[in-house]
Design brief:
The protein is α+β, with helices and mostly antiparallel strands and 238 residues long. It has a domain at 28-151: TATA-Binding Protein, CATH 3.30.310. 63% of the residues lie in helices and 20% in strands. It has three helices and eight strands; from the N terminus they run αββαββββββα. It has a six-stranded antiparallel beta sheet, with helices on one face. Strands 5-6 form a two-stranded antiparallel sheet. A hairpin with a 4-residue loop joins β7 and β8. 15% of the residues are buried.
Length: 238
């Protein structure tokens, strides 16, 4: 296993652990309660929902969510929705208000209306819609958060499958290389054995050669002595 592969496996293990921690610590209790608020110094009635989330994230998410109900605008610490739409009814000239308050762990969302801006016959009907909308906001937020976790888990799963496939292919390649290496090892061992035999034969031949040289040298000396004697004998002839 290469250094890069080991590093990737360690990162994947840490990432998987973080996913498990996030999943098991995620809370999704949704409870909407009726709550009054103050908008433009007037008493406003609406509904509140507490979420386990950063307030900054909820403010952005709430602004996007409310765009489906009308034209939104941020002012004086609250969101306003002009001419809100519920179903097929558009309440022209009316406004919904929403706020998000809290910290980095908890956020309280409030959505409601200033009853002085609405006609009496619309208030009760609209408040019923606002209560459902507030609840739907909480459901949508938590479901979207859950989907993000699902997407991250799927990415982690895809990464493990990809890494698994890579390791399987690597194993096949290593098996082929190992097979070739074993064949080469057998060939080298056989060559080494042949080399040992050839080495022994050459040593024996070299030894025989030396013995032959000694025999020839001895014979040469004897022949030289005979030759010297013959020459000496020749000189004495007169």
């Amino acid at each position: 296993m290469t250094l890069n592969t080991e590093t990737n496996m360690k990162r994947l293990a840490v990432f998987s652990l973080s996913l498990l921690i996030t999943t098991y610590s995620f809370s999704q209790t949704i409870k909407v309660v009726k709550k009054n608020n103050r908008i433009k110094e007037n008493s406003a009635v609406g509904f509140s929902l507490e979420l386990d989330a950063k307030t900054d994230d909820i403010e952005n998410y709430l602004a996007k969510f409310l765009k489906d109900y009308g034209k939104t605008r941020m002012a004086n610490g609250y969101l306003s929705v002009s001419a809100p739409v519920f179903g097929d009814v558009t309440y022209t000239g009316n406004t919904l208000y929403a706020t998000a308050e809290g910290d980095d762990k908890k956020c309280q969302v409030w959505v409601g209306l200033d009853t002085t801006e609405w006609t009496g016959r619309d208030v009760e009907k609209v408040l019923e819609r606002v209560e459902k909308m507030t609840y739907q906001f909480g459901v949508k937020y938590y479901r979207d958060q859950a989907q993000k976790e699902i997407d991250l888990s799927q990415q982690a799963l895809d990464a493990t499958e990809k890494q698994k496939t890579r390791l399987i292919n690597q194993s096949k390649d290593l098996s082929i290389i190992l097979g070739n290496n074993e064949q080469e090892k057998l060939h080298l061992e056989k060559s080494l054995e042949n080399n040992k035999l050839e080495h022994a034969v050459l040593l024996q031949k070299l030894e025989n050669n030396k013995k032959s040289q000694d025999s020839i040298s001895t014979a040469g000396l004897q022949i030289k002595k005979v030759l010297d004697g013959q020459k000496e004998k020749q000189k004495k002839i007169n």
